[in-house]
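The authors assume throughout that readers already know how a fold can be written as discrete tokens. For illustration, here is how one protein appears when written out as sequence plus structure tokens.
>
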Amino acid sequence: MKSGVGTLQDRFDALKCCVIIPSYNNASTLSSVLDSVLKHTSNIIVVDDGSTDDSHHILDGFSEIELLRFPKNMGKGFALRKAFRKASALGYNYAVSMDSDGQHMADDLLVFLDAIQERPDSLIIGARNMQEAGAPGKSNFGLRFSNFWYWVCTGIRLPDTQSGYRLYPLKKMGDKKYITRRFEFEVEVIVRAAWSKIEVGSAPVKVYYPPGDERVSHFRPFTDFFRISVLNTFLVLLALLWYRPYLFFSRLTWKSFKSMVRRELFNPDETNGVKVASVMVGAFMGVAPVWGWQMAIALGIAIAFRLNKVITLAVSNISIPPMIPIILYLSYISGGIVLGRGAGIDFSSDITIEFVTENLLQYILGSLVFGLVLACLLGLITYILLLLFRKNPAVKSRDK
């Protein structure tokens, strides 16, 4: 226990921390979960998210807790969002969320109290040991899937992005508007926290998985996984188009820029394959029909897949103004060949919406084909030049 702090309740009060427990039809475990938390603190907010079992009567027996009730099930994310607002209104600066199904251990609340003092204003996720917990295989797969996409979106590697046992810094988070309200909220909130420059970290916690016949889960494998996948797609696009380029340029100074050019362009530890891939991505994005976003997307891809950022950006600049007419022409011609319309341009037709639509489709398709051909051609040339003039290309050690 930290020095200068008396009882556990005193620590919760001194740190202005509460515990938020969203619950939906968990009557079999709700009472024992509340009893275990009350041994540590009475700063508890329970959200009864439209339960239809005996939860209503159980909660009526706990007069010391703050209770929010919804007449119908609104989703875990919605419940947490409302609880955050309630906690802030009550003067709390931090909230620990935990599930009501008995998987989280109340004695791990001390882990989060320590985290407040050691890493104030951070969002801390309780990292489970999935091997010792005996979690089902699908949970391990879902965890790896979630961890990977979180890294793509933020550049942060975490051992467990799916745990619902978390510490939220309420004041730091402010009154943000979120777009999700079910399980996918727990993905959105940690991505947007990182984008808002809130430190996102983890701390080890225990977890209990009851036998299959006793386990209560409201996660709908197809529906909720689909919703999370859609959200991840949206967040990844935002990361590539905005966050990753913004983060890169916000940290850039003239001194660091010169150092980066020397390091990236002539990096001896970089494999030929990385340099070739960087050229190919830059070439394809330089031709791709996303005018105005070509460099930003190219940079986002380079950062996400650890390519050579300088080479990728340099090659993507083939779409400079003098080259634009040539790129447009070759893209249009390529589309005509693919669609079987020949390599010519028909200027005799009247300008109609149908004419414009058909030619726009020809251009978009052609730009993708031309970009792919150009990327392969420049990649091949780059590879040949590297073989001829690069004496000591890096290779991956098999001993690593």
The chain has two domains: 8-241, 254-389. Residues 1-6 have pLDDT under 50 and may be disordered. The first strand starts at residue 17 and ends at 23.
